[in-house]
Amino acid sequence: MIKLDHVSKIYANNTVALDDVSLNFAEGELIILKGVSGSGKSTILSLIAGLLKPTQGDVVVDAKHISKLPDHFCSQYRRDNIGFIFQKYNLIPLLSVKENIALPLVPLNLDEDVLHVKLEIVMKMFRIEHKKDMKVKNLSGGEQQRTAIARANVNDPKIILADEPTANLDEKLSLEFIQILKALKSSHKTIIVATHDPLFFELEFVDRVVEINNGKLVCS
Amino acid sequence: MFVLALLVGILASFFFVENSLKYELESTLDLQPQIIITKQKAGRDTTVDEKDINVILNIKGVNDVLSRVWGYYRFKDKRLILIGIDTFENQYDDILAKITKSTELNVSSMLVGEGVKKLFSQYYYHDYFNFILPDLSLKKIFIAGTFKATTKLESNDMVVMNKDTLRTIFGYQYNEATDLAVIVKNPEEVASIMVKLQNIFPTYKIVAKKDLRITLENRFNSKSSIFLILFIISLFTFFMIVYDKLSGLSSTEKNEIGILKAIGWRIEDVLQARFYEGLIISLSAYVVGIMAALLYVYMLDAPLVKNIFLSYNDMDISLPFIMDYETLFLLFLLSVPVYLFATIIPSWKVATLDADEVMR
Fold this sequence. Notes:
The complex is a heterodimer.
Chain A: E1 2-10, E2 16-25, E3 30-34, H1 41-49, E4 56-61, E5 64-65, H2 71-81, E6 82-85, H3 97-102, H4 112-125, H5 141-153, E7 159-163, H6 171-186, E8 190-195, E9 208-213, E10 216-219
Parallel strand pairs in A: 3-8, 3-9, 6-7, 7-8
Antiparallel strand pairs in A: 1-2, 1-4, 4-5, 9-10
Chain B: H1 2-30, E1 35-41, E2 44-46, E3 48-49, H2 52-57, E4 62-75, E5 78-85, H3 94-102, E6 109-113, H4 114-122, E7 128-132, E8 138-147, H5 152-155, E9 158-162, H6 163-170, E10 176-177, E11 179-184, H7 190-200, E12 204-208, H8 209-246, H9 251-262, H10 267-299, H11 305-310, H12 325-351, H13 355-359
Parallel strand pairs in B: 5-9, 6-8
Antiparallel strand pairs in B: 1-2, 1-11, 1-12, 3-10, 4-5, 4-11, 6-9, 7-8
Helix pairs in contact in B: 1-8, 1-10, 1-12, 8-12, 10-12
């Protein structure tokens, strides 16, 4: 389903983030990308999401050459296929929970009723409906994360990408996130989690752990 | 939005005050006779003799000549304009013509403008007023009513009474008048009649309406230069805001665009959202600014700004409501499209970058 074919990424400041990485992810798999900070995990997620273009190599998702897609189609691809949970959640602080979750649906110009139903479902699923009218800046870390997960799932994407999802959470909330991950896995979504949190490495429902170090694949 | 609304409000206030006063000025000038003759003594205006009327009426092209008895009267640091009328005479002024038709003025009554009525009431002169004559005796004149006119600049501080009564107040002799108003049927003949008048009365001052217009406009325009300076400062501030917006978005704004792109928004979706955001902000600022200016100018009577223009006039006036659509359109063009342009261009620059690059 997802294929990274001899991918290298060198940033403008000549930092080599990835060096000839080839990886395959099957549909419905839950993969943990393991590695220290700066190892290149986040770059892999950004490449799969089409947020970055590789310097060399190709990224193919569902037979689509993501790395060659123009910006316009990249956005459309993300909207239809990707749910991204960012490390710092990347929510818009002055908007409410509901407004933040609705953001991916805005360009679709959905009917008000359809939009309402979609939002209610996803807010209930991730237990944030009781805070729906609150500004995001007033939420706790765990609530912000649940809002970010709800936003990543509101368009029912096939692929969920999570970048250091527990980096800003305590252990209790991290375990809560793992339960959410388990639930998502049961809905047959392809999930890739980039993390260095040991909590993820021994989970029985994880299909694979891929280790990255200095932009190179250590084990897959 | 607040700053933009404030700037629109300031600019609109100046425009509204200027438009209202220009309208007043034009209306006042329209009411003036074509030629005014005053007698000079030691270089200062003095009274004319009504006997001169017969001489002037003999000049070909002169339609009518009216003697005007008018002058200023100071009361509690305010300057009132006292005008005398004879109800049987033709009037050179529409307001006076209306008054003579609708009201019977006797020797001991007067009509007052709204400003004068207010002033008198402040000092408990509700029904009458005691004028101090040159010999320091008092003359009681009853207030027969108040009047409104199209131009408040002229009528607000005006007191109209019988000509002979006014002569008594000013200490004029019978047949003495302040000046003479010459009515000429054909405006093309005004210049030649003025030459003839000057030949007949070489020591008199003969002023045409157009000269009066130039004098009044010059006085008004010199006041307008202060307005111009403030206008330029406001405009400069506005373009500083525009330049600041054009020179780049804040890190928060950039991050927001990055987030939107990362969750699947296309460049056109981002620009559309920014367009509507800018439109709502600039339109709201425009509407709020205009409303605030209307409130400030027409409800509160433009304190401070009005005084820049009106300092030559002692009596306070309330500004007439003049809705100038050109001014509104000019302010709209200055605020909404310029602000939208300044919002969209930097957003477009950021939206065309990779989302990852923008968020980093």
